[in-house]
Amino acid sequence: MKRLNELFDVSYGNKFDLNKMRHLPLSKGGVCFVGRSSQNHGVSGTVAVVPTTPPYETGLITVALGGAKLLSSFVQQRPFYTAQNVAVLRPLQPMSFAQKLYLCLCIRHNRFRYSAFGREANRTLRTLLVPEPSAFPSWVADQEPEQLGSLTLPALPDEALHGIPPLLTASWKEFRYDEIFEIRKGYYNKKPPMSADTADVPFIGATEKRNGITGFVAQDSLQRFSRDGSVVEGEPLARKLFPAPCVTVTNNGSVGEAFYQDKPFTCSHDVNPLYLKDKTVPLTPELGLFLATVIRADKYRWSFGRKWRPMRMPSSVLRLPVNKTGAPNWAFMERYMRLLPFSSQLE
Known about the structure:
Layout: E1 2-3, H1 4-7, E2 8-11, E3 31-34, E4 43-47, E5 61-64, E6 73-75, E7 80-82, E8 86-91, H2 97-108, E9 129-130, H3 138-141, E10 173-176, H4 177-180, E11 181-183, E12 201-204, E13 213-217, H5 219-224, E14 246-250, E15 258-261, E16 266-267, E17 271-276, H6 285-296, E18 317-320, H7 330-338
Parallel strand pairs: 3-7, 12-16
Antiparallel strand pairs: 1-9, 2-8, 3-4, 5-6, 5-8, 10-18, 11-17, 12-13, 14-15, 14-17
Helix pairs in contact: 6-7
């Protein structure tokens, strides 16, 4: 592990106030204004360039130091200014976009150490521990570094980024979950033993980490143990082992977390496996990740202790891109994900 200031030059931004700046669209020469939001890459507006203060260049990382979503971290893809309580990280050595994005996730997952409007990150961000480059996963470490500030993007917000078509969500359509998915219920109330050497079946629980996997269980243990943890010989394995591919969604605990599963698994009753109703559409990794992202974007609806039990899920709605007939545009969703960085890792 390394302290953040061993990998980055950490500065504390411009400390500008958005309400004191002149709004100017990007198409007319404006630049992005990054605040403490966790949405839209932290960008809360576009403003005119301040003659005495050049904006930060593209390719740097911004980190929210306070607020409800502190440690929200983004690789900024256009020149920008920052609000108060926003840090700017400039790599001390060249890094690829993938490496920066990976470190954004690492920073964000330290959020549990802080409390909004209480113990914030202003004084301690520099010493926050993150993995050093030698410990990056191979799919991150193998990416070619880019020169600092070399990332160039179109000036207009409605143009494609890196050849990626814009997500025009205003034209998306709402669908009930039971229109799109076959919603299944999880099985176990109690996790079966995880210590067997042959444990190779993922156990999906109500967590927001590790693709929902909280452990692995051997298939023979899975077959022997019942809901309450007692041994029951001969209980049908089909009730406990769920086929892949599917998307799993937590209905309790970390409610609304969604993950694509590409291997058969078992899960707790706090998890609902979702299978596409339209069996002519293969649930590829690209399509599964798109759907998981859309589902996860709505998790705020289940804050403050609300559970998303199976009786509520069928009538819940999600918005999806549609084709000319008004049906879900599966081809667009899959194609969109293939254009993103790391798409080669989905094979």
